[in-house]
Amino acid sequence: MQRLIGRLYHLLYHLDNTLFFEAPMRTWVNWGFVLLALVTLLVGLPGRFYLAGCSLLLILLLSLASRYARRRYYVHFLPESPKPPDDPPLPLWPQDKLLHHASGHFEVEDKAGDWTRLIAYYRTFETREHAIMARLTPSRFLKLGEFPPQHLGMWYRFITPENLLDVAPGQIYANGEEEPGLRLRYRRFDDKGNPLEDLFFLHFDSEGDRARVMADLLLDMGGPARRPWRPETMRSQE
Predict the structure, then answer these.
(1) pLDDT(238) > 80
(2) pLDDT digits over 190-204, tens only?
(3) Exposure of 43 by Cβ count < 10 A (0-12 exposed, 13-18 middle, 19+ buried)?
(4) How far apart are the first and last CA of the chain?
(5) Contacting residues for 216 by C-beta, under 8 A, at least 6 apart
(6) Across 109-176, where does the E strand assignment appear?
(7) 23, β-bridge pairs
(8) What is the DSSP letter of 137?
């Protein structure tokens, strides 16, 4: 059941975000159901009113499901309470980068976008600001839909310790696959400087990668930042 929900979210994400002849794929699907309802009524098939009603109902259900999934960035996340490790991993050093996938609200220059499962790097600077550096790459959906070319390229999310409110481990179900994940609850700011609480999701290939990033995030969650977080050998050279 969980994998099925993950596949549904994956389908909705691409229907909402990929274009075919400059229109979202979901628009084409909706018009397909409308056309089906009209043809059913005009041809006069048995049970035509029932079939037409079902077609219009599917449009409504698709819209509601899409709205529900969009608020969760099309991520099906089940939290868990793992046993704390006896020997917790060290946080990341400033020079470390860890490859993973990321979902949430991204920004770059004067643009903002909500993207799901972008390939990304996680790192933490000496200031203890956490950076998720992701890339939206060209891809095709059902050999028809494509992401708008103006959105392709690098996207970022930066989170400081004082704006990180919670870190929860769990399992993420994406396109039928299960993977270790983290759900971050954090504070960001809109164009007018107003604070907004939001969610961000990190997907990992292994439990070890998740444990290391989680240890790094929990080191000074809520602030103040623990600085400088560098190896003793680096500090002794100054």
Answers:
(1) no
(2) 888 899 999 999 999
(3) exposed
(4) 56
(5) 91, 92, 124, 130
(6) 111-124, 130-136, 140-141, 145-146, 153-159, 164-174
(7) 20
(8) -
